[in-house]
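re: ur msg from earlier - yeah i can do the magnesium ion complex, just paste it... oh wait u already did. ok heres what im feeding in:
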Amino acid sequence: MPLPRIAQILLEGQPGTAIEVAGWVRTRRDNKGGFSFIELNDGSCMSNLQIVVDSSVPGYTETIKLVTTGASIRVAGELKASPGAKQRVELHAQTLTLLGPADALKYPLQKKGHSWEFLREIAHLRPRTNTFGAIARVRNTVCYSIHRFFQERGFLYVHTPIITTSDCEGAGEMFQVTTLDLDKVAAGKGPLQKSDNPAAAPAIDYTQDFFGKKASLTVSGQLEGETFATAVGPVYTFGPTFRAENSNTTRHLAEFWMIEPEMPFYELTDNMQLAEDFIKTIVRDVLRDRTEDMEFFNERIDKTILATLKNILDHDFKRVSYTEAVEILTKCGQTWEYPVEWGINLQAEHERYLTEKHFGQPIIVYDYPRTLKPFYMKCNADGKTVRAMDVLVPGVGEIIGGSQREEDLDTLLARMQECHLNPEDYWWYVDLRRYGTVPHAGFGLGLERVLLLLTGMQNIRDVIPYPRFPGSADF
Ligand code: 4AD
Ligand code: MG
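and the outut:
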């Protein structure tokens, strides 16, 4: 029989019942009166179960000294009402079994107060801390909320490929996937293209590679998502995404998880409304289902986090065109590291000023200059801007990027040319505009960005179990 979890015992356990639990020791205190208190955690919630072990428990003397922080134990006994104010019930042990010791001199989490950097080096153990346990639980609740949100609205969950031969964002920030022997290639023995020109630089012959052409890890499932949205109706993808951008920031990962809905017959304003409902639903679900963890974040990580989240629920997201945003930024009297003028990419400092200082709430910036955005975004009649939208939130900046898609064949082909893309490489995507094209739109939410918003954690490397970033793919 599976053991009851501590969260359930703390909530509904009845004094007088016999129970058995197992978990990892957080602390042990020995009382002079001949008994010990153990704080036991099994990851089901932030709180520990207090266990009282009397010296009359069989094997007490030999076992108790091995019950140190990090050790795993199994305890059977009787649940009693606790005289302490901290907990409703406590477990009085009748048997105590040491499952696995944790050498007190070596266990890295023996003491509290480690730096985030140190904890990143022990990413295999950090889930045992209060903060990382809470992040794991909140992350799970967010994922559940996301699936529920789309399933309740009739969206189909589609699995788009991880290995791809097209670059969705057109930014060339892709990790190559190859089975070619790079050492051989370096030694000049690799598969090289035949060339009649002896002066030409040698080029690799990818027809000899595993897929017969150059392949990469996907930067987005959007293009394949569009093929399903224009067949089965609204869909969403939810999967790992890879970007080889060399940005060593607290907001970027080389491997992150992205949720990408794609909806036929949606225009940009419909897309904005869905994005706003989506964020609010996630925030509401997490506040409702992870109260204890959220109070912990508010107390220990960021004292404004609950107020920020409530503020998000209480207001409509402000919608601001890129042109208006640039006007606000140029007139506000602030000095910028990256000067602002119409046509520039908004930097984190600009995004955060808008959402944190100027509006004090989430905003949706739309109609960006065409030159800043990928080929697939729908062109506006002004000839300068595209139907793009970014959702910016306080504390984080951009968490969603999306757009209405260009559904007109000729305009799309012209945009591809402008972006130096070969339509032949995207022939299947272009086909969607040849056969039954429809207006459609979608967006991408970065899962780790939404976790930064929810937890108040400062570094994106701490809200994913095993972060990958330039120079680091340990574990
Ligand atoms: O704005 P992005 O690049 O948009 C797309 O990829 C579109 N194809 C989405 C779509 O319309 N279906 O990325 C979307 C979101 C960003 O707003 C951000 O939250 C997250 O993905 N993101 C990252 N998160 C962590 N690390 C990175 N390197 C990220 N790059 C983007
Ligand atoms: Mg973006």
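cool cool. DSSP finds 14 helices and 16 strands in the chain. ping me if u need the other ligands too
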